[in-house]
Amino acid sequence: MLKNLPQREVDPLWCLLDKFNADQRKNKIDLIVGVYRNESGKTPVMQVVQDAEQLLANKAESKSYKQLSGNTKFNRQIAQFLLGDNNKLDSQCTIQTVGGSGALRVLADFIFCSSRNAIIWNTDPGYINHRPIMEAAGLKIKSFRWQQKHGQLNIAACFADLEKAKKGDIILLHGCCHNPTGIDPTLEQWQAFADYCQYKGLIPFIDMAYQGFGESPEEDAAGLRLFINQLDLVLVAASCSKNMGLYCERTGAAMVITTNTQQLHNIRTVLERITRASYSMPPEHGAAIASLLFDNIKPWFDELSACRDRIVNVRQALGNIFKELNAPTSLHIISQQKGMFSLLPLTAEQMIILREEFAIYGTSNGRINLAGLQKSQVRTLAEALISVVKS
Length: 391
Ligand SMILES: Cc1ncc(COP(=O)(O)O)c(C=O)c1O
Known about the structure:
Blueprint: H1 12-22, E1 29-30, H2 47-59, H3 72-83, E2 92-98, H4 99-114, E3 119-124, H5 130-136, E4 140-145, E5 148-149, E6 152-153, H6 155-162, E7 170-174, H7 187-200, E8 203-208, H8 217-220, H9 222-230, E9 233-239, E10 251-258, H10 264-276, H11 284-295, H12 297-324, H13 329-332, E11 341-343, H14 348-358, E12 360-361, E13 367-369, H15 378-390
Parallel strand pairs: 1-12, 3-4, 3-7, 7-8, 8-9
Antiparallel strand pairs: 2-10, 5-6, 9-10, 11-13
The structure holds pyridoxal-5'-phosphate.
The site of pyridoxal-5'-phosphate (PLP) has 13 residues, from α4.
């Protein structure tokens, strides 16, 4: 068997991290991995999470199996968090998943079950793991351009590329904080997407991995809620990795919302069959923590907004230095983008120069994680970027 095992390259992201770890320079800056870091460069456990864990440890009763769809209370709470105070709560089926990635895969399998010939339309550039997940489920994937024009998403380019999409195809969108570009649609543009989906018969599949990282959780869900109010079927993959800092607890949810409520029971059964044939049921610990955070939302929101403010401040500081140093216009846009990521206007070769000459590490496609930057490093990054762009 092993003779026939295909040769695969190690994931380039992890190779880059190895390079970073081996770099002996004291001034090196890691903007590679997509995790939040505080001003000290740490990815901390939120205080609200620590308190919840303490509470859970004290009252632990049993580790017996839970439902196939995970923690029922968590499922209801995360659905509410995504939908807001919306009567659509009766029109959805939500199951707890193994992180946002698990939700993406379960929903990809779900799509394959009923419409295996549907094309998944994915943003270009897009999240590095969307394609492998969709393809692993047997789905075909095509892309549409996701670029800015005059500081906004160039929606005309999206629609031009989506022209070939046919009824029943799926459009995979990032609910907020687009990874890797940081370019989010305006509310009017979300509305245009919803109208377009309705007109073409496309099914939106919203990946909500950063709710609360761009703006408030309510504002970040505004696009998603437009879709839900207008369309008959919406798929949502949600993650608690970033907004609760539960990364390694692998906590997320897959949600199907439909006006065809008679189908909800069967939808649940199909979703549960998919997980049963894979990992059976999701781990409880992260969902139990998340549920306690949802029970008492204010202190969690306070910590979440502190994370968000830090990223916004880093972007603003960078923007101010760009102005002061009269940076090329292609760089100024970074200060307007949303969430942790920006895609630099640099080629793969320029990203190598950034790494080799300035000890600043981003991925080869130009993505940097601004949450990896400390205040004291903002000027260093700004000057390095100006130098590389001009060179
Ligand atoms: C756009 C997007 N979707 C999904 C995920 C996966 O999240 P999780 O770690 O919860 O699996 C990520 C993680 O970086 C992401 O950026």
